[in-house]
Design goal:
The protein is mainly alpha-helical. The chain has four helices and no strands. It is elongated and about 65 Å long. Keywords: Membrane, Transmembrane, Transmembrane helix.
Length: about 140
């Protein structure tokens, strides 16, 4: 048995997890864009969802680049590519952590808002806020 290849179970688990995470990220971007003007109590909440989704997507793409970078034939090429991808990953991770903290402050400073659209001063769309609280708790 070749120990260098991952088992079928681990591969399946990774694919399922990647599809779920990708679905949540796409939902965050889509719902943030759809409800962009539906949270007057804190207008940055939909923007937070869009930016968070885009940057988490970038982190995933860069991480996949590191995974496929191991296919490089030349050791020097592999080292250079790995250093570049790791540097970009660290910058992206730092931004995502800082953005997460910023978004948490924005969201929890107005929680719970009014879900009644007639109360424009304190209104935020319930679907938008439910998704964002789910993303924060993940």
């Amino acid at each position: 048995m070749d120990d260098s290849k991952p088992s079928a179970f681990l591969t399946s688990l990774f694919v399922i997890l990647a599809v779920v995470v990708l679905g949540v990220i796409i939902a965050a971007i889509g719902i943030g864009a759809y409800f962009l003007r539906d949270c007057p109590v804190q207008p940055y909440i939909p923007v937070y969802l869009i930016v968070f989704g885009v940057f988490v997507l970038l982190v995933l793409i860069v991480s996949l680049g590191l995974l496929y970078g191991t296919l490089a034939k030349d050791t020097y090429e592999l080292l250079l590519l790995s250093m570049l991808i790791i540097s970009v990953s660290v910058i992206l991770y730092l931004f995502v952590v800082c953005w997460f903290i910023t978004g948490s402050v924005w969201i929890y400073s107005v929680h719970p808002p009014s879900y009644d659209p007639t109360n424009e001063e304190n209104y935020c769309n319930k679907t938008l806020l439910t998704l964002i609280l789910g993303v924060l708790l993940m």
